[in-house]
């Protein structure tokens, strides 16, 4: 397992992060939920033994049940809290009423305390404001997050699903006021959906922020779950260019066959070869899924294979992109 720094910090996180959204759902579907808890206990132990030190969750996953399950899993496995990096999120609606959601100081501080109680821990390693709250000034949000860091309840802060201009605005506010700044962005990025490369990834590189990748297999699109003749194609089909996705699957299949691995593992390996990617969040409600993800970290793609994959999935050049490229070339010495 490789480890990378989280943003512009010295904190080292594993290149795979254990996602947990499925465990609360699984617990709710069983009479006692004990089967799901036992599965999570074993999953966390196996992940930790394989070198994964990073866990991602959220306060709204199964109305907080998932966080409680993680807290119990840590206790029952006898894992040292300081050996793990726990990330969670805030921003989603937790109850009816006008103030039970969003990025207000009231909601953030209240939910941080609830999360700490459920996780049965004294601190959150990475606290992320997820989604967009158009009603709350960023000054209020960042002030609240900074208060949590100063109090010792939170170590680092991040965001999820924010546009580049909004992240830069937040960084400017943090620098102006001496607040903690975002160290990582959680976002959707795959070999078939490279939209982040237009604005987000240049911004992340410039500001030395980390990227935590969601849904690396396009909700099953990149593991052979769907075919060209399908009309549905899952939720991911609404976000990606289907023909480009099928084209890249056609390229990945022979690569996978030559290496004795799956198409999904090739897609994961491509992500792990991208320098901007800090960690890939993997969901593994079944043990064999975790084992498949773990094998991906050992997959080496050759320069020729990476070039072929890049060429078939490259984003069409748009203005001002092609103008910028020409101007950069013009400024270079002859």
Question: What is the radius of gyration?
Answer: 20 Å
- What composes the largest sheet? 8 strands, parallel, barrel
Mean pLDDT, all residues: 88
Q: What's the level 1 CATH class?
A: Alpha Beta
CATH architecture: Alpha-Beta Barrel
Please provide a written account of the structure.
With 334 residues, the chain is an alpha/beta fold. The chain has a single domain (3-331), classed as TIM Barrel, CATH 3.20.20. Helix content is 44%, strand content 16%. It is built from 12 helices and 10 strands. It has helices at residues 21-28, 34-49, 65-77, 105-119, 138-151, 164-177, 200-207, 242-259, 263-272, 287-296, 303-313, 321-331; strands at 3-5, 12-14, 16-19, 54-56, 85-90, 124-130, 154-160, 182-188, 210-214, 277-283. The strands form 2 sheets. The protein has an 8-stranded parallel β-barrel, surrounded by 6 helices. The chain has a two-stranded antiparallel sheet with strand order 1-2. Helix 8 crosses helix 9. The protein is globular. The relative contact order is 0.11. The model has no long low-confidence stretch (mean pLDDT 88).
